[in-house]
Write a structure and sequence with these properties.
GO terms for molecular function: DNA-binding transcription factor activity; sequence-specific DNA binding. This is AraC family transcriptional regulator. It holds the Pfam family Cupin_6. With 327 residues, the protein is α+β, with helices and mostly antiparallel strands. Strands 1-9-3-6-10 form a five-stranded antiparallel sheet, with helices on one face. The protein has a five-stranded mixed sheet with strand order 5-4-7-2-8, with no helix packed on it. β4 and β5 form a beta hairpin. It is elongated and about 65 Å long.
Length: 327
């Protein structure tokens, strides 16, 4: 498992988190749910994405923008539009409101689409767990990728799929949206002059990339710097320096942080598992040593963390906020 694959595995479209709107100016759709991640791409036409604390971003045909929650945003025909904003969320689902024209179980065949209209495809993503929080932390509130890249082929499939109403449509849309998000994030991280997170570039280093893959594939293994160096074919000193230079911390410090991230999700997902059970899964034979490491990294011991997560307190953070339907 590569690191990016690990981090994005909890970011999945899963039914109903999809909408496609065909709009004629003036319009202003205010997306109020504040989903952890929302992907917007224009099939035809153009508009602007406006958020509260960021400059307006143009969205032309085949451009894609990703907005990181809990920020809400508005899609408008032009900055300063005279249109009254329509709150889009759970109930924004009828064409006469300027909302979704295509959704599972609803076809509008035969309706005329006005020439020059803008068609917007939106996918809102729940983001599950501490693992994917690491990905969110690497993203700005708004990121934009121009059309013409690898996502164009996906967009063609999306546009074709929303125009039909067939069995299995929701599954296809979910997977296409996931594909589109991966393509968008890859291109944004690789953009000329960009500043991707250290781990993104480190994955491509022959030595450090292999070390990261090993740590992610076998997090519970009894790793030492010597063992990791032996598996990557370099000396301990070479691995330690190269890893710290590219990732920003020593290999075993990174491993501890990753183990605690895995443990945080397991504490929530496996309600019947004891702290000792979780400790063994992430490579600790001693639950007391695990608890001490967890508190040092996470700021609370495992039992406290589990209780806090179960109550859904604000400390749980936006990455674990429940998904709402965006049609």
């Amino acid at each position: 498992m590569d690191m990016f694959g690990d981090l994005i595995r909890g970011v999945r479209a899963h039914g109903s988190l999809f909408g496609s709107s065909t709009l004629s100016p003036p319009w202003a759709l205010h997306f109020v749910d504040g989903a952890p991640l929302t992907l917007c791409t224009v099939v035809t036409g153009a508009g602007w994405i406006v958020t509260e604390h960021c400059p307006p971003e143009p969205l032309r045909a085949r451009d894609t923008i990703v907005v990181r929650g809990p920020a809400t945003f508005t899609f408008v025909d032009e900055v300063g539009t005279r249109a009254e904003p329509i709150a889009c969320g759970e109930d924004c689902s009828t064409p006469e409101q300027g909302g979704t024209r295509h959704r599972l179980g609803w076809s509008d065949h035969g309706e005329q689409v006005v020439a020059g209209a803008t068609t917007l495809i939106v996918g809102a993503y729940p983001v599950r767990g501490e693992i994917s929080r690491r990905l969110l932390d690497a993203l700005p509130v708004v990121l934009r990728v121009d059309g013409g890249g690898s996502g164009d082929a996906v967009l063609d499939h999306l546009a074709a799929e929303v125009a039909v109403d067939t069995p299995g449509q929701q599954v296809v849309l979910d997977r296409l949206l996931d594909w589109m998000l991966v393509c968008t994030l890859r291109e944004w991280f690789d953009r000329p002059g960009g500043e991707p997170p250290a781990w993104w570039a480190a994955q491509r280093d022959a030595v450090v990339g292999r070390a990261l893959r090993l740590l992610h594939a076998e997090p519970a293994a009894p790793w030492t710097v010597a063992a990791l160096a032996d598996r990557t074919g370099v000396s301990r000193s070479t691995l330690a320096k190269r890893f710290a230079d590219l990732v920003g911390e020593p290999p075993l410090t990174y491993l501890t942080g990753w183990r605690m991230t895995l443990a945080a999700d397991l504490l929530i997902e496996r309600e019947s598992a004891t702290v000792a059970d979780i400790a063994r899964v992430v490579g600790y034979s001693d639950p007391f040593g695990f608890s001490a490491a967890f508190k040092r990294v996470r700021g609370a011991n495992p039992s406290e963390f589990r209780r806090t997560a179960a109550t859904g307190s604000p400390a749980d953070g936006p990455a674990r906020a429940p998904a709402r339907r965006v049609r």
